[in-house]
Specification:
Distance between the termini of chain A: 34 Å
Radius of gyration of chain B: 30 Å
Order of helices and strands of chain A: HHHHHHHHHHHHH
Largest interface: A-B, 107 and 104 residues
CATH class of the largest domain in chain B: Mainly Alpha
Strand order of the largest sheet of chain B: 1-2
Structural class of chain A: mainly alpha
Number of strands of chain B: 2
Low-confidence stretches of chain B: none
CATH topology of chain A: MetI-like fold
CATH architecture of chain A: Orthogonal Bundle
Oligomer: heterodimer
Structural class of chain B: mainly alpha
CATH superfamily of the largest domain in chain B: MetI-like
Number of domains of chain A: 1
Radius of gyration of chain A: 23 Å
CATH architecture of the largest domain in chain B: Orthogonal Bundle
Low-confidence stretches of chain A: 275-284
Order of helices and strands of chain B: HHHHEEHHHHHHHHHHHHHHH
Helix content of chain B: 55-70%
Mean pLDDT of chain B: 83
CATH class of chain A: Mainly Alpha
Chain lengths: 284, 451
Amino acid sequence: MKIKKIINSTLTHGLLAVLGFIWILPIFFVILTSFRAESGSYKSYIFPKQYTFDNYLNLFKTSSSGVNYPQWFLNTLIVAAASCLISTLFVLAVSYCMSRLRFRMRKPFMNVALILGMFPGFMSMIAIYYILKGLGFLESGQLKLLALVMVYSGGAGLGFYIAKGFFDTIPISIDEAAYIDGATKWDVFRYITIPLSKPIIVYTLLTAFMGPWVDYIFAKVILGTDRAFYTIGIGLWTMLEAEFIETYYTQFYAGCVLISIPITILFLITQKYYAEGVTGAVKG
Amino acid sequence: MGEYVSLKEAMKHSNIYTKLSLLIFGFGNFIHGQIVRGLLFFILEVAYIVYMASFGVQSLINFTTLGTKTQQEVFNEVTQVYEYISGDNSMLFLLYGVVTIFLTLAILICAVLSFKSGYEAQRMKELGKKVPKFLDDLRSFKEGRLHIAFLTFPIIGIVLFTIVPIVFMICIAFTNYDHLHQPPGNLFTWVGLENFKNMFSMSGGLASTFLPVLTWTIIWAIASTFSCYILGMLLALLINKQTTKFKSFWRFLFCLSVAVPSFVTLLTMRSVFNTNGPMNVLLRDLGIIGKTSAIPFFTDPTIAKITIILVNIWIGVPFTMLTTTGILQNIPKELYEAARVDGAKPVTIFRKITLPYMLFVTTPYLITTFAGNINNFNVIFLLSGGGPDTLEYYYAGKTDLLVTWLYKLTITQKDYNLGSVIGILVFVILATISLLTYRRTNAYKDESSFQ
């Protein structure tokens, strides 16, 4: 029995190690390329001939071509922080309503939300562009960033399904006990559901926060050629355009490594919420 | 907050003051002492009337014609240059028309609300109850009307950034807004079902592009959704096993790929699988393929499709692992213990307990992922760009999904009307598939069975 257990455990760890290796390999490639001294784009070898730190340093030097990495980083940070706060509030509010409150328009709303999610996202992109233009949000760079926040968080209320699924698993008897003690629905939401829902809140915050870092289609449409107000996504994308790619290819990867670091740190901090989950808090 | 009354019933029992609230918003509330509420309704009505008089009526008329004056070039004798006299802009006319229609719908809803609210006040008075004051109304947002307080802003966001744009784009499918009719230089106009006919008529090149692209889109969506779902869940279970050491380390390892923005990994994969990229070089060095040969990862249609699905597994599995870890830990431990006491094998436990529970909680997630994959723009666009290109198709490559084809048609080709038609077709397909499956799931029929 014991030998079987050891074999079993070795197999598990062996499998995880192999999978981990496959998953880490491309990231390894990104990091290696970011330290490559030879300039130019695609190379047919993985390990650079020479290593350098210049790719990182050059990112923070001002260049005449309009590549301004620190500014892009800051823009994205602001947009991401604002839109992740708004989206999370929207998602939590909507999913709580759908999970716990009973009112007449609930089922129709859920069906409509499901239906709306099926339209190709950027089918509406051109329309959104004109709406924002009509509202005067494309007049200056700062307003464009504000417009981006609205675009990223505006429709967030539709993405309530995962959080609703989570709320559904919290025993309703806890709510009922609170109602008997005279709590209002708001009290139950604020003092019972929210504290029990840390994992899903963290999940929602994280996914919403990452949106602006990786999006470039909406950003491209809204920001146009306003390079000073680019977010990191289209900024980096610009480096791969034909006129820049030979000079900026290695810097592109350096930039990618730099933006991955804060996101990775966020993961490290918040990991325990995934690990411990809600089972520790709610014993039905 | 009274119980729900139907419009018909309210119509029958209401007095003249209440009926007047349909014309003069808030009148009923005002009469019965709900001053602030009545005023709020009234202000909305006045704002709408002002809007309609100054702008709205004209925009509705323009909506029906989509503009009549084309932009003209006139030679100016004084300055000796050609000048443009701006004509009508069909695009803006269409947009303003849609917005006005939405505002009108909103004000009609307001009329009904004003009437009902007046009726409620009337009944309170008749029954001799105290009519709630504005402060009572505010307080009720924490209790009976919490859903209104919670949903108002999200819904405004959804209407403005999702519904209005979608309606606008649907309208475009019924116009001739293609590369020959670009505003502001040219006008476009309503053409009815013309675009849909073109899409399906066998004579044109569109049907012979549409069907193969559709087939590949569906294969792709099924393969990518389920491969990521099952593998991600198994990975999560593997890490969560009691005997597994360094749980956080493994989780972190896989999370790393989520932390790197997907366009970075996609572009990396693209260069890794390049004809002379590291992958082919590696295979050559290992002697698996000849010194000069290369596996056509992105240039052979079939291999390109397989490569894309594999790369997508690499991207999607950590996401599923993250999502499912929390839910997996929510499965009541008693279920597992009972099964173990009964001597159930791990496979049986997975099939009989884990999977049903997961499907119960995550069916909506699965459907959203499926829809997301049908509309998965990034993976295809960044990885293969829809290629390998082919002349058999109308502006589409062999790995193009409907949605990347839509992109090419609108952004590159400027055939907005065709793009909209494809968008609508994608929607129809998705709506049918998912509503059918969703309505059959337990998650929809019985939401509280696990509560």
